[in-house]
Amino acid sequence: MKCNQMTLCLFFFIVFALSSVVISEDVHAIAAKTGEVDTQTSLNVRSGPSTSHEVVGSLTPGEQVAYTDNGDGWGELVDGSGYISLHYITNHDGEPVDRSSAKHDSVPLNNERIVLDPGHGGKDSGAVANGLMEKEIVLDIGKRTRDILENAGFAVLMTRDEDVFVSLEERTAMANAWGADQFISIHANGFSNPAANGVETYYFPGSAAGKHMAANVQNQLVEHTDRTDRGIFEESFYVISHTTMPAILVETGFVSNADDASQLADANYRQTVAEAIANSVIDD
Ligand SMILES: [Zn+2]
């Protein structure tokens, strides 16, 4: 009958309309994620998915955000206000979000955050002698250390991973904003007397955690390199006194000493130093 067919048509139309609503809500639920801003200061919201895009706003620590993850390390806020780095977002269950970005494909197995700070860079060469520049030596050691720590499941932030100048203020601000657990500054020494040689590690005066870190890395260095043990020392260097987490500064040898320099020029030595630094974190 006509009337029944109309009813049937209407029925199917309603079923169809409802199902499309349900389906579209499903798609939305799959795409969006929620998390919490995990910084100690604030998190920049940018107009696009990279640090080269302009800052268009900021979020406060602990703030809840809904975003879509396009797999490039950046989240697009569902309210359309911009993009945020997922390095600083923690999911509700306290687990870090997938930090596999275009840069590194390993996913941290734990929540420990290590900042590696290769000294100098760009216009600042650091110590220069025997054909070596400190900025190049320590960047290479830093990258090698990063690779080992990331493979061991640590989240690693480098204050620089190329030959650029980064101020001491920027270095410490990066570490503090990220809420790092440990800060390790990597340097090589230079001195007017070419006889001076060996490895040494500095920590913030009175810091028990810093002293513990310094002793660990110094022991590893002395055990695995054939360098002179100059010991561990208290010192208020900028980067270890303006960081809010335990921090050390490692001197990996003297570019001004012929014997140390020949080691620092050798990739095997730089790898050994990187393993010593990484092991002091992993074995702790
Ligand atoms: Zn230096």
UniProtKB/TrEMBL annotation:
Keyword Flavoprotein part of the UniProt annotation: no
Keywords: Cell wall biogenesis/degradation, Hydrolase, Secreted, Signal
Species assigned in the record: Shouchella clausii (strain KSM-K16) (Alkalihalobacillus clausii)
Domain of life of the native organism: Bacteria
Signal sequence, renumbered to the chain: 1-24
Its EC number(s): 3.5.1.-
SH3b domain boundaries: 32-93
Primary localization: secreted
Pfam family, one: SH3_3
Record's subcellular location: Secreted
BP terms from Gene Ontology: cell wall organization; peptidoglycan catabolic process
Keyword Zinc appears in the UniProt entry: no
Protein name: Probable cell wall amidase lytH
A Gene Ontology cellular-component term: outer membrane-bounded periplasmic space
Family label: Belongs to the N-acetylmuramoyl-L-alanine amidase 3 family.
